[in-house]
Amino acid sequence: MGWRFRKSVRIAKGVRLNLSKRGVGVSVGGKGFRVGIGPRGAYTSTSIPGTGLYAINYFGKQKNRELPKVMQKASDQSESEGFNFEIPPELASNSTSSALGCLWFLISVIFFFIWWPLGVVGIISQIVWAAKSLNSPTGKAKNYFQQGKIALQKGEWQQALDAFLKVLEVKPEVNSLYREIALLYRRLDNPEEAIKYFEKYLAHYPDDAVTKLNYAVTLGTVGQYQKAIEVLQGLPTEMKQELVVINALASAFLGLNKPELALEILEKGPVRSRKTMNEQMKLFRYLLGLTYKQLGETEKALKQFYKIYAEDTDYEDVRDLLKELSPSFGG
Q1: d(C-alpha 327, C-alpha 215), whole Å
Q2: Where are the transmembrane segments (predicted)?
Q3: What are the boundaries of each domain within the chain?
């Protein structure tokens, strides 16, 4: 059995110096509730006096969350294009530093009632520290990020983009924000700039398969089909089975005028297994119809276009395609 050591020394009313084998800490409070900081970080301690029962909660300690699989993220186009509203890790405050600031403020308040001059000095120093933090590059970057986040929530894409670009002006090392900027440029119909920022982001986060998918789709919008295919073919195996990736690959092969390869990809899709006609399924049938049309298989092409028309009469140019391929079509 290993020996343990713990001793608590009262240094003022409500303030204790805690000594243990792990190191030195300090805590403030009274019976039932205390706030402190020790070798393991800042914490709160709640107890039921006279029972010996207590609980300790450390700041910044969270249960591990199981990350969703990449294929689940990419299974729906709108989800794969989603913005991240969490503050970039490069701007996230150190939890211990923040907890120390809160603890220092509490100690200052306590000392204000014990010996008010020392309490006043503590509170003033806390205000000065907070002001300096707000005016630091990190503080300014956080403020710009919050402005961008609010604009995103309102759907104000240009304002959000401007705010995020200001973040990079004051904190160029916030690499994780490149992804949001790329997505915003794409929303603003500027795929060339979107591609630049996707590439900057992927240079730092090369394993982000969902962003690679968005990057490849954007490459396809500017006619860089071969590069898009290379990116899509490099995605994880399980992700390449998803309809959004199948559609992107088939579209790129059609862009290169290779309908045989497009058909080989599309034949892996859920022709019979999926009954619901969502946006990705409409796109799948549309691409399949175009592929059959280019291969001269008119009846098969008509079958796909009719399925789409039955669900959405205004989808793309399906109406015109049906008139072209079927003279008897009266839509």
Answers
A1: 40
A2: 103-129
A3: 6-58, 270-331
